[in-house]
Amino acid sequence: MIYARRAERLHLGLLLVHVIPEDLVSHGNPEYRSVHDAIVGLLESEAGRARELAQAVHVQTRLVSGETVPVLVELSASATMVVVGTDRMATRDDMEGRMILESTVSCLRARQIHLSVSERFDSADAPARALAGASQGAAILVVGSRGLGAVQHAIMGSVTQVLPLHVPCPPILTRPAG
């Protein structure tokens, strides 16, 4: 946690921010609350770690909805120092991904009791290959597309363009409303 110690040396406050894409879950869905709570817990855990290492630093946290780059641009306008990323290994991302997956699946199972839902977390494989592997034996594969690539207005993203050719079951490709 080099950034906390540097903030202490420079007599700066520290704001830890996590940006959650608005299209990940909408605020009206029950899944949003569980994802929100999981990420707030991760932020508070990291803030506690920063406070232990740099006790003179005023540490705050903020969870923001939106797209990462515009949010960071806005927040950095008044910042003395901006640190993007983390000094921890990728296992942190895996933990967050697992928490989001578990909370989303449990909410889906609670709301759709007649639906058989399988979950599989795979951060080692390419997304399209992981989804194709996970769909083995499935009746259907539902995949969301954010369309955030170079051509934002394209009908499908790069992963969803590859899937129909490689999955053994019918895929349903969805996009956020609006």
UniProtKB/TrEMBL annotation:
<dbReference type="Pfam" id="PF00582">
    <property type="entry name" value="Usp"/>
</dbReference>
<comment type="similarity">
    <text>Belongs to the universal stress protein A family.</text>
</comment>
<protein>
    <recommendedName>
        <fullName>UspA domain-containing protein</fullName>
    </recommendedName>
</protein>
<feature type="domain" description="UspA">
    <location>
        <begin position="126"/>
        <end position="171"/>
    </location>
</feature>
<dbReference type="InterPro" id="IPR006015">
    <property type="entry name" value="Universal_stress_UspA"/>
</dbReference>
<dbReference type="InterPro" id="IPR014729">
    <property type="entry name" value="Rossmann-like_a/b/a_fold"/>
</dbReference>
<dbReference type="InterPro" id="IPR006016">
    <property type="entry name" value="UspA"/>
</dbReference>
